[in-house]
Every structure is written in C-alpha cells, then in structure tokens.
Design goal:
The structure is a single chain. The protein has one domain. With 149 residues, the chain is of the alpha+beta class. Helix 1 packs parallel to helix 4 (134-148). It is 34% helix and 35% strand. It contains four helices and nine strands; from the N terminus they run E-E-E-H-E-H-E-E-H-E-E-E-H. The chain has a six-stranded mixed beta sheet. Strands 7-8-9 form a three-stranded antiparallel beta sheet. The chain has helices spanning 41-64, 77-82, 97-101, 134-148, and strands at 2-6, 10-14, 24-33, 66-75, 89-92, 95-96, 104-109, 118-124, 127-129.
Length: 149
C-alpha cells in the first residue's frame, strides 16, 4: 500500500489496483482548533489515533478495493468560540462518527488552546471519550465499509 501525502494536511491511502472489487472511497474528515500551529492534548491524541488507525487498516482496504482519504481541517478560535463542539469532530464519508457508532455527544472542560470552553466528548455504553480512539475510528470505518462491499 502506498501513502501519498499532499499539501494541506491531506493523507491519502490508495488501495491495491488488483483488488477484485471496484475501487470505492471512504473519506475521513477531521476538524480541530489550531492556534499558533498547536492544538489541545485531546485533539493531538485524536490526530495520532487517526494515523494509527489508518496504518492498522491499510492491508484490509488494499484487499477489498477501497481507498481511504483523510482531510484535516483547522478551525480558528473565532469559529471555535461560536461553537466549541465543532472541534475534534470526525466525519466518515459525510456521516458524523457519533451517528455511525450510536454515540451521544457531550462536553467537558478542556485546557490550553481551548481556554475555558467545554469541548466535545463522545459517550458510548456509559464510557466517555475525550479523544477519539483508534478502536472507535476503525469500528466506524468498518461499519462504513460493510455497506460498500
């Protein structure tokens, strides 16, 4: 599997051209607050988890003929101030990850770049996630893939 890194924080994983299915694409869009090239620890952890999830899934997507493309969007503090829950939000092929996973969206105090704002959390089966783990990202991508193959 090849990685192609594009300007503008885009990472694209191309699937194997020899896969038996028609190439289809899953898009992962992730937005987070960025101030002076920095994000809060929650967003930094989610960013790392996205990278690890992509690495784990690369062989699977190669073999089923699905491409995964990620787009990382920077939110300004002005945008964040109007609605802090837009930060650290992930869409998988235009569907919010919380809808795919049946999660509840909540909020809790954050730190650093976020100031005194309450930031996005997800609650699944009574467990609250302040950052989005690779397990949740992989689960959401797999659910999306099942509908595609």
């Amino acid at each position: 599997m090849k990685y192609r890194v594009y300007q503008g924080s885009k990472t694209k994983i191309k699937s194997n051209r020899y896969a038996n299915t028609t190439n289809k694409k899953i898009e992962i869009d992730w937005a987070r607050l960025v101030i002076n090239n920095n994000s809060c620890p929650r967003c930094c952890e989610t960013g790392s988890e996205i990278g690890i999830a992509l690495e784990i899934m690369k062989e699977l997507v190669k073999n089923v003929g699905i491409d995964i493309e990620t787009r990382m969007h920077e939110i300004t503090f002005d945008e964040f101030s109007k609605n802090p829950l837009v930060s650290n939000r992930i869409y998988i092929s235009d569907e919010p990850i919380e809808e795919i996973l049946g999660a509840l969206v909540g909020s809790s105090k954050c730190c650093n770049e976020c100031g005194d704002n309450d930031c996005r959390t997800l609650e699944i089966n009574g467990k609250i996630y302040e950052s989005i783990s690779r397990k949740l990202i992989i689960k959401a991508v797999l659910k999306t893939m099942v509908d595609m193959i």
